[in-house]
Every structure is written in C-alpha cells, then in structure tokens.
C-alpha cells in the first residue's frame, strides 16, 4: 500500500526516465545503478539484453524519483562508465520514438503557432527555463513584417530541446505553441538512413516480444525507445532489437522525417496535417509543410529560402521568404 501511494505521488515517468546508450558489453545493472545514483534516488535501473543470448544490447534505462534529478545527471555530462563515454538522453515516449526524428539530437527547436501578439522576448523568457538560449528568431513575411506562424530557438545543448519536446505544447502569452526538433540537412539524412536500415531489417529492429510487468524489466507491447545509435545487430549507428519494455515507450518506427531539399531544415513527418520536409526544386534552405490537407508547404520555386504552399486543401500559400 505504501509503495502504491509513493508511486502515485511521483512526477510523470516520461520526465524522470533516461536512456543510456553506448554501454560496453560488460556493464551490468549494478554498475549502471551505482553510477547514476550519485545524482539522485533511482526508482529503476536496467541494462537491456537479448532474450535468447542474454548479451547486453548496448543500452539501458534509469528512472529517478524526480525530474530535477534527471536535470542534475544531464548537467554533469560527460558520463564515463566502465572506461567508455556513454550517450545519456531523456527517454522518449513511444508515440514520439516511432518517428525517425527521435533518433537525432538537435540544439535547435522549431516552434509553431506563433501569433502577431508574440515577441521574441516572450519566447526567450519562456524557453530560457529549459536551457541557455543562443538565438531566438520569429520568422516574418519579408513584405508585411508579420509572423509566418513559426519561430526557431537555438540552445547551447541538445538536452534543452529534448526537455521542450517532451512537453510538446507550451502556453505563451495565452496561446498554445507546439514544438519539435529542428533538423539540418545532415541531421535529416542521418535520420533517414537509420530509418532505411530499420526498414531493411524487415521490422526486426524491435526484437522478439518479452513478457513481464509494466515496471522495469521485460514488458509486453509497450516499449521504450532511445536514440538510434550504438552496437546492436542493426550495425553501426543503430540499435538492433529493443525487445519489450513496459510503460508505453517505443523503439523508433514509422514516420520518416526530413526530405530532399537542398540546404534546408526538415520538420516532422509529411502526413495529413503533419510537418513535412523541404521539397526539391529551386528553393534552398527553406522550411515548410509538405503534408496533405491543412499542411504548410515548402516552396519549390523562387530564390534561396523561398516559401511556398505545397499543402492540399486548407494549406497555406504564398512565397518569398
């Protein structure tokens, strides 16, 4: 009864859990626990293993009792375990980790829902609590000077972006703004390559299902996912089978991010209403929606960094950024 009461008082798990990639094959649960307990009280700790061979898959998870303890751990990077510098990140909920974008770290944040009432100072004030801001820019129409509905926030560390994305929707000056990672052309290519490798493996990246409870240890269909690089069967740059892991987190799958636009920055998957990648053609360096109905469109004509409405019904038109 007491343990149930304690669990009920904990902050949401997604804010307290970390993914630890790049572990050596010899790193044990106990080693992981001993290392990360220096920054707070651990609720759970596990090194993920192949269900058949029991060999380490090169990554694990730790869960603290408070989000502030995750913040403390991330503030004390680099982390060296068993002589190797590992890759700690905030664990990503399944609905987010099923996108290729989840596999890439970015120091730049994409903010949608920007209104005329918003100012760059408002965004600086709001997002500075997540990390040190290097640059804040509301993208405006070059003719009217009015906001085009989005902005970019550049931090000095990828962890600040990860924290913002976990929340996703932010209320700024009484308006809802959604956030996503902003990816460079190189980062988009990396995410696409990892997605292709996953698809080439025929969906085997998740590994055989494991049985177990909803806490640490093997889980059923609900899985945890982490950034796609390490020493798994998928080869360099990706983890192989994640296996099952309870709690509603998942391995990256579906929803390809990015596109072919020259010099552009890519957003999330180009689905109906989803954020798409820069399109081909004459424009370079632009952002846009390449999706279906209700989507923003990346311009494929005009000069460098031009904008165009490529969405379907209800899409935004216009060019000339």
TrEMBL record:
Q: Known Pfam families for this protein?
A: RRM_1
- Give any GO molecular function from the UniProt entry: mRNA 3'-UTR binding
Domain spans labelled RRM: 16-99, 107-184
What's an example GO BP annotation here?
mRNA splicing, via spliceosome
Q: What GO cellular component entries does it have?
A: catalytic step 2 spliceosome; chromosomal region
Which UniProt keywords are given for this protein, alphabetically ordered? Repeat, RNA-binding
Record's compositionally biased regions (Basic and acidic residues): 188-203
**Database matches in InterPro entries:** Nucleotide-bd_a/b_plait_sf (IPR012677), RBD_domain_sf (IPR035979), RRM_dom (IPR000504)
Return the annotated region ranges for Disordered: 188-229, 256-321
Composition bias type Gly residues, residue spans: 210-229
Q: In its UniProt entry, what is this protein called?
A: Heterogeneous nuclear ribonucleoprotein A1
Organism, as annotated? Dracunculus medinensis (Guinea worm)
């Amino acid at each position: 009864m007491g343990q149930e009461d304690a669990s009920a008082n904990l902050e949401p798990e997604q804010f307290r859990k970390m993914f630890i990639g790049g572990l050596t094959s010899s790193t044990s649960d106990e080693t992981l626990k001993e290392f990360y307990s220096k920054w707070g009280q651990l609720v759970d700790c596990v090194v993920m293993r192949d269900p058949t061979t029991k060999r380490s898959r090169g990554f694990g998870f730790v869960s603290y009792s408070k989000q502030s303890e995750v913040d403390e751990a991330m503030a004390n990077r680099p982390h060296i375990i068993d002589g190797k510098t590992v890759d700690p990140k905030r664990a990503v909920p399944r609905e987010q980790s099923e996108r290729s974008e989840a596999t890439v770290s970015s120091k730049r944040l994409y903010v949608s829902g920007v209104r005329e009432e918003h100012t760059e100072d408002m965004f600086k004030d709001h997002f500075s609590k997540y990390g040190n801001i290097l640059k804040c820019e509301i993208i405006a129409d070059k003719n009217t000077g009015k906001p085009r509905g989005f902005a970019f926030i550049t931090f000095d560390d990828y962890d600040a972006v990860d924290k913002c994305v976990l929340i996703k929707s932010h209320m700024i000056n009484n308006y809802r703004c959604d956030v996503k990672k902003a990816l460079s052309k190189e980062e988009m290519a990396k995410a696409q390559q990892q997605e292709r490798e996953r698809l080439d493996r025929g969906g085997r990246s998740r590994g055989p299902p494991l049985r177990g409870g909803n806490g640490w240890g093997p889980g059923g269909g609900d899985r945890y996912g982490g950034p796609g690089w390490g020493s798994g069967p998928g080869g360099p740059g990706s983890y192989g089978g994640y296996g099952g892991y309870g709690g509603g987190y998942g391995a990256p799958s579906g929803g390809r991010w990015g596109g072919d636009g020259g010099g552009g920055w890519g957003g999330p998957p180009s689905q109906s209403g989803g954020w798409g990648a820069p399109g081909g053609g004459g424009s370079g360096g632009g952002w846009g929606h390449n999706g279906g109905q209700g989507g923003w469109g990346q311009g494929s004509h005009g000069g460098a960094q031009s904008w165009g409405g490529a969405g379907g019904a209800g899409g935004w038109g216009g060019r000339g950024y």
